[in-house]
Amino acid sequence: MVDGPGPAHHSLWENKHIRLRGFKADDWPYFSRFEKDSNDARSVFRIVPPRADEAHEAETAELVRKPVDEDCFSLAIESRDSGEIAGAISVIDADRRAGRFTCGLAVDRDHRRRGYATEAVLTLLRYMFDERRFHKCEVYIYAFNTASLALHEKIGFTQEGRLREREFFEGHHWDVVVMGITSDEYRERRSPVSL
């Protein structure tokens, strides 16, 4: 057995309050619950017509069967205290040539303001920067979502631009703020084994 860097028996995917894990087939109620709350659905995805539980079951089973992609994936944010799913975090649009990827984040209303989102984003950045050698992470946040803007700024993201009237819901077009952080900026703020 070979010892590596960092504390013994430590999982990169676990932190003080949360663990990131793959979705399981019986996680489908999370997606159903999230989609039924119109404000939550609109903040991350979009509002769709109501679907039967069987549709959520089938969709979740398909997600579970999907082959592992080390650069683009979705993970459950699980509370270490309760074992409940607190949200989800995803990597989308990973561009290996440019060294850039986009992060998507959703935390349930009942689990907000507990530090879960911060831990989840920092864990994802550590994996993508320190293990996958990506150079930059970008996020797209509705301009009115001041909590998410503040969270990413606290982590070290910089506002890079504003896409005017980019998304449409609730009868209006809304601005989207683009924020980014480079691997160097991330490392300036964090020690290699800090979480």
Structure description:
The chain has 195 residues and is of the alpha+beta class. It has a single domain, classed as Gcn5-related N-acetyltransferase (GNAT) (Aminopeptidase, 3-Layer(aba) Sandwich). Helices cover 32% and strands 31% of the residues. Strands 1-2-3-4-5-7-6 form a seven-stranded mixed sheet, with helices on both faces. A hairpin with a 5-residue loop joins strand 2 (73-79) and strand 3. The mean pLDDT is 87.
Radius of gyration: 17 Å
Count of DSSP E strands?
A: 7
The stretches of 5 or more residues where confidence is low (pLDDT under 50) are none
CATH superfamily: Gcn5-related N-acetyltransferase (GNAT)
Shape: globular
Largest sheet: 7 strands, mixed
* Overall average residue pLDDT: 87
- CATH topology annotation: Aminopeptidase
Approximately what portion of the residues adopt beta-strand conformation?
25-35%
Termini, distance in Å? Answer: 24 Å
Major sheet strand order: 1-2-3-4-5-7-6
Number of domains: 1
What's the order of the H and E elements?
A: EHHHEEEHEHEEH
Alpha-beta classification: alpha+beta
Tally the helices. Answer: 6
CATH class: Alpha Beta
If classified by CATH, what would the architecture be?
3-Layer(aba) Sandwich
Helix content: 25-40%
Organism: Wenjunlia tyrosinilytica
Protein name: SPBc2 prophage-derived uncharacterized N-acetyltransferase YokL
Pfam families: Acetyltransf_3
GO molecular function: protein N-terminal-serine acetyltransferase activity; protein-N-terminal-alanine acetyltransferase activity
